[in-house]
Amino acid sequence: MERRHHISQQFDAELEDVRNRVLSMGGLVEQQIIQAITALSEGDAKLAELVIDNDIKVNTAEVAIDEECTHIIARRQPAASDLRLMIAVIKTITDLERIGDQAERIARMGLRLMEKERPKNNYGELRHLGELVAAMVHDALDAFARMDIDAAIEVAKQDLKVDQEYDGVMRQALTFMMEDPRSISRMLDVMWTARAIERIGDHAKNICEYIIYLVKGKDVRHIGLEKMEKAVKS
Amino acid sequence: MERRHHISQQFDAELEDVRNRVLSMGGLVEQQIIQAITALSEGDAKLAELVIDNDIKVNTAEVAIDEECTHIIARRQPAASDLRLMIAVIKTITDLERIGDQAERIARMGLRLMEKERPKNNYGELRHLGELVAAMVHDALDAFARMDIDAAIEVAKQDLKVDQEYDGVMRQALTFMMEDPRSISRMLDVMWTARAIERIGDHAKNICEYIIYLVKGKDVRHIGLEKMEKAVKS
């Protein structure tokens, strides 16, 4: 009895450790997004380089957490909700790693844009879009930490707003290009950056779906927001 | 003894079933890519609509296989290589599902391009790029079926070729835009399509990395091709 209690305590500590590592990886990724966007909008090449260099930290975190989860599954043979936690973590960190890739891409685009003419608003529309998705990532991780499915739904809803703003940025860039073909190359960079930011929103939404899977044991991918809300309420 | 033998036979059958379902999902995804590219290059709107409609089959397959893997892990508590197979499958189908999303995107772009002026070569450069990545997906699944890590490395190498061809398509589209600003909107669609195709190559490469993880127990993500080859040989 003593021993079983001890093992279960150890197991809980291991799960807690994994959870904390995911949150810390998420914090790193969030910082990468914010720094990439700041570098771009402030024309800060050093900061952009830092983001590019730091992507390896994100990758390393993914590999390490993945390994820990596999070890835990093999050693503890968790059932039901603990196993779901492990699966949700394995999926979440894949999305976090890809968010990291997009942040790196934004930083690289920032460097390219620094060599070109700068608009008066310092790419305020990209900054705004970037802040929206950074908040989504933050809130998704928060929902993960608290296992809060209502919060997860709210974050998933935010993705609609991101898509709308993204469409606006793309339309504006297209108009710009057509009016002034000399701006084509620069506007393409703006479009690629907007696209990278928008993808981050998609990944944050994926994480929210894993949280719902984790808490409710229901797979809510590919069913649309409305059904997702229903699944959570039932 | 009898009973244990029976259980192990059942377990083997379950693993075999999962493997087959992954291959069949992969076959579906491969077909989606080829049909999307054909629809685009032949201006076949019906085929494009079919691809868009069929994406739900890809999504359904992902959710079903995911569930089966979780059940197997919970019920059979597999260790070592069997557990790695389950994890590799869970990751592989995520990439397959995202390849499916890209195929759908190509089909949608195809529909848009059908409403615009058509080039004499019927987007031969996109068709070629599409055929390259469809072959990568096919070969990656083949490597998965045979657990062939050398083949997996070969597929991963193909991604370099895809990236080169992609760069060529992008440069050409940019030149076109600059020479004839009336082509901007159409060339943007070409660029988005090329990008979707290129992403498929990345996902196929991811699948190859999971195969190496599965067979060698080594995580070869984020380390570059050269080190990946070394890891496989050691």
Label this structure with key terms.
Methane Monooxygenase Hydroxylase, Chain G, domain 1, 234 residues, mainly alpha, homodimer
Helix/strand layout:
The structure is a homodimer of 234-residue chains.
Chain A: H1 2-42, H2 45-76, H3 80-114, H4 124-146, H5 149-179, H6 184-216, H7 224-233
Helix pairs in contact in A: 1-2, 1-3, 1-4, 2-3, 3-6, 4-5, 4-6, 5-6, 5-7
In short:
With 234 residues, chain A is mostly helical. Chain A is 88% helix and 0% strand. Chain A has a single domain (2-233), classed as Phosphate transport system protein phou homolog 2, domain 2 (Methane Monooxygenase Hydroxylase, Chain G, domain 1, Up-down Bundle).
How would you describe what is shown here?
2 copies of one chain form a homodimer. By secondary structure, chain A is mostly helical. The first copy, chain A, has one domain (2-233): Phosphate transport system protein phou homolog 2, domain 2 (Methane Monooxygenase Hydroxylase, Chain G, domain 1, Up-down Bundle). Helices cover 88% and strands 0% of the residues of chain A. The first copy, chain A, has helices spanning 2-42, 45-76, 80-114, 124-146, 149-179, 184-216, 224-233. In chain A, helix 1 packs antiparallel against helix 2 (45-76) and helix 2 runs antiparallel to helix 3. Chain A is elongated, with a radius of gyration of 20 Å. The first copy, chain A, starts with a helix and ends with a helix. At the A-B interface, helix 2, helix 3, helix 5 and helix 6 of A face helix 2, helix 3, helix 5 and helix 6 of B.
